[in-house]
Structures are given as structure tokens and as C-alpha cells.
Amino acid sequence: MIATRAKINNLDVNFITAVVSSSKINLKCKVKTAYIGKTNCFTFGHSIYLSNSSSLVQNIGNKPLVYDIKDTFFDSLKDGDIVEIYSNGIVHVLWDKILNHDDLTLFVTNQCNANCIMCPQPPRKDEHSFFEINKAILSYLAKKNIKCIAITGGEPTLKSEELCSLLKHAQKIFPFARIDLLTNGRKLKEFSYAKQLALLNHNITFCVSFPSDNMEDFNKIMGVQSFTDTISAIQNLGLLRQMVELRVVIMKQNCDRLPQIAEFIYRNFPFVVHVTFMGLEIIGNAYDNFAEIDISQKEFNKNLLDAIIYLKQRDMNVSIYNMPFCLIDKRLWGFVKNSISKWKQSYLEECRLCIKAENCQGVFSTTKISKYKIQAIVDDTRKHKIL
């Protein structure tokens, strides 16, 4: 989510969730207001002032104020955006009505029962429950045309009661919206739990991390002994006729075995609706372990090509996520999907000269590495036909 750090005045709670609204008050400086969300609903009439200046501090009495907001962040806030404001000055945009007009991401927990070496958001203890916030957001957006809801963490399945309530609430408000539940699958080895989730909402796609075809590599990448749990979970979801997407994040630990991973998936899980091979987001654990997991396109392109051809020839739905065109063999361009969240998309100086820039998702703006190994595509002459 888009975030910034500002200064806070007169905020007597740890955090609030609010809906941005244009200010009708003439305070002789740029200012916006936001309606504070309390408990399970947005309570209109309770406002907090938002400003990119400090001149309001002496002028608004005891009203809550967020000030010295960076100009670029402040100017990007629009009526109807949902923001989360913490007492330490952190301001997050939870939902942007322009960038996310038909999709929504709900964050369930920071906790996780794995510790993947490439995880962009390492597990940590929750300081508060996210349930009421998520429920309020769903209610507030009830009249919007939301087509896809991503539920993520951490590991969402650890919060069983909250997750079940959230799925039920989403089904009631958005009965036709696709639900992408991002999970490592470990908790779903319990058939009864997997069945409970399946019955609560009929539009779930279980997006399961699947980094390797063998137990040793799988467990090293996941940071825990989870291979058998995940296998059992996928089998349970198959028995329940659920939609399953398997996600293979490409790194040094598995790049040599991409064709074997593809074969393993086809032979053991031919029922999955989608397989995606994914690039790294270099932040969190991925940044800490960058030297260990980093690979060049020369190291993975041949194996990625073989893996995708194998699955395509067997009529399996396969894609490539989180990679710009310049890092991928031209024959695979047809499999590239625009998967990076719009607020995370970034384009480097080299991209200005690239003939594919208009259709490319770029790179992660959140990455902590100083330079991507990219090069502008200036000649679209293909030695090989796109598959």
C-alpha cells in the first residue's frame, strides 16, 4: 500500500481508519478532511484534518490533525480514498478509488507459520486485530463495482474465526467478486477447515505457494517443515473441487528445477486452474537474503521456457508474474501478465527508450536494491516466434 510519514497532533488512539473528503473549511492553506472510522463502521461527522503544512497547528483547537504530509502524497489523496493513520505518523492508503476502482486487498494478519527466504513481508506479531477494519471497508465499498478481493497476510488461515467471518461478509456484499486467498496452505491440511472455507464463499481461488518439487528444497525455501502439509492441503482442495492456483517464485534455489516442478505439478495436481512463475520483490527477507537467492535471466530463462512449454502442451493455464519483458525470453512474452499492484509499479530511466514500456508492468517500486538488471528493448525483431 502507498504510505508516507507525517506529524500527528491531538490523536489519542493508536490508529484510525478514515475516508478522505474534500474540506469545506477555509483555513487559507491546502487542507483535506477525513471521516474517522470507528469499530465496525465509518462514523461520518468525526473528522481529522490532513495538511501538507504545519500552519494549522495553532488554528484548529483540539481537532485531530495530520500535518507536514509530503506534497506528492497529499496531492494524490482523492475524495473516497480509504486511509489508515497511526499515532507514530505513518499514513497508509488502504484503497485508492482510481488505482483500485474494481479491486480490493484485505490484510488479515502479520503472523505466519512459515518464514520464506524470499518473503517481502516477514512475519511479526500483530499489534491489533484487522477484522473490524476489513469488515468496515467491505461495508463502505458495498455500492462499488468490486470484481476481485485479495485476502493476504502473513498467513490469513491462522486467523480462522476472523477469516471465516470475512469470507461470509464478502459473499454477502459482493456475491460475484472473485476472492484470491493467498496462503502457504499448511492449515488447509485439515480437511474440515478447508471444507469450512469452501462452503462459506463459492468464489475463492486458493493461491498456494509452491516453490519446489522436492521436500528438501521446499522446506529450505519455506523456512519450516511444510512440504507434506502443503501437498495434503492441495489434495484436500482438489477433493473439494476448489479453484487452486500454484505460485512458483523463481530464485537460485529452484531455477534449475523449473521443468521438474512443472512436471510434478502436472502429474500430481492436474486439476489446478492456474500455475504462475513469479519474479522476486526485493524487500523484507528477500532483501536480507538477496545474495543467496538472486539470479540473472540467463540462469532461469531456458528452464522457464521448458517449464512453460511443458505445461502449455498439456493444456494447463500458465502465466508469468512480476517480471518486465526485458528479463524474459521473447518466446514467453505472451505469458506475461500485469500482476504488480498499480501503486507498486515503477519504471526506470532505461525504460524510457523501451518499445515495450507501454504494455510492461515495470518493476517493483518497493524494492530495496539499487539497480535492476534490465535493458531497454529497442528492436522488436524476433528470432523466435512468440508462443
Q: CATH top level of the largest domain?
A: Alpha Beta
Order of helices and strands: EEEEEEHEEEHEHEHEHHEHEHHHEEE
Taking pLDDT < 50 over at least 5 consecutive residues as the criterion, the unreliable ranges are 24-29, 36-46
CATH topology (level 3) name of the largest domain? TIM Barrel
The end-to-end distance, rounded to whole angstroms, is 34 Å
- Walk across the major sheet and give the strand order: 1-8-7-3-4-5-6-2
Total of domains: 2
What name goes with the CATH superfamily of the largest domain? Aldolase class I
User: What is the subunit arrangement here?
Assistant: single chain
Number of DSSP helical runs: 10
**What is the rounded Rg?**
22 Å
Return the structural class: alpha/beta
Describe the global form.
globular
Task: Assign the CATH architecture of the largest domain.
Answer: Alpha-Beta Barrel
Total strand count, please? 17
User: What fraction, in percent, of the residue positions are helical?
Assistant: 25-40%
What portion of the residues fall into strands of 2 or more residues? 15-25%
